[in-house]
Design a protein that fits this description.
Layout (H helix, E strand, L loop, with lengths): L1 H20 L9 E5 L5 E3 L2 E3 L9 E3 L5 E3 L4 E5 L10 E5 L10 E3 L5 E3 L3 E5 L9 E7 L9 E5 L1
Antiparallel strand pairs: 1-12, 2-3, 3-11, 4-5, 6-7, 8-9, 10-11
Length: about 150
């Protein structure tokens, strides 16, 4: 009887480790995130013409993490104040969700973080490829702060 119990404990531990190592599933799956300003896609913190590559595939997790589909790097608010335009960062997803790394899709197309900033196409009104995306003070009806989410 002791051998059977030991085997069940070992099997249970192996299943637990496997579950902890499995990738986190998302209700939405991979999506493209397109700015309404010119239809370009979010790619590693910049906008580029949409091309369907892994660099433009994102996942919104139910816990608020917004990360790359391939590589699982999370988007977070970096240095700066959203009132003046804060930088975006891309890094390993933390086990907890600091407010600057927690994102919510709004009905009007804005993507806001837990600090109250909006994902926005960079300063100066540029719409060219390689324009940075920043976190900025939210303003209604601003195409540079509105995004369409397109399932892949």
């Amino acid at each position: 009887m002791g051998g059977v119990r030991r085997a069940l404990v070992v099997a249970g531990a192996m299943v637990g480790v496997a579950l902890l190592c499995a990738p986190v599933a998302s209700a939405d799956g991979p999506v493209e995130v397109r700015t309404r300003l010119n239809g370009f896609c979010l790619e590693r913190g910049y906008i580029y013409p949409c091309n369907g590559t892994y660099a433009q595939q994102w996942v919104f997790d139910p816990d608020g993490k917004f990360h790359t589909h391939y590589g699982g790097l999370c988007l977070f608010q970096g240095l700066g104040d959203p009132q003046n335009g804060a930088e975006l960062g891309l890094g390993r997803c933390a086990y907890r969700n600091p407010p600057g790394a927690t994102w919510t899709r709004q009905p009007n197309g804005q993507i806001t973080n837990g600090l109250g900033g909006c994902l926005a196409v960079g300063r100066g009104g540029s719409t060219a490829p390689d324009t940075p995306v920043i976190v900025f003070h939210c303003t209604a009806n601003t195409p540079g702060q509105e995004w369409d989410i397109a399932p892949l």
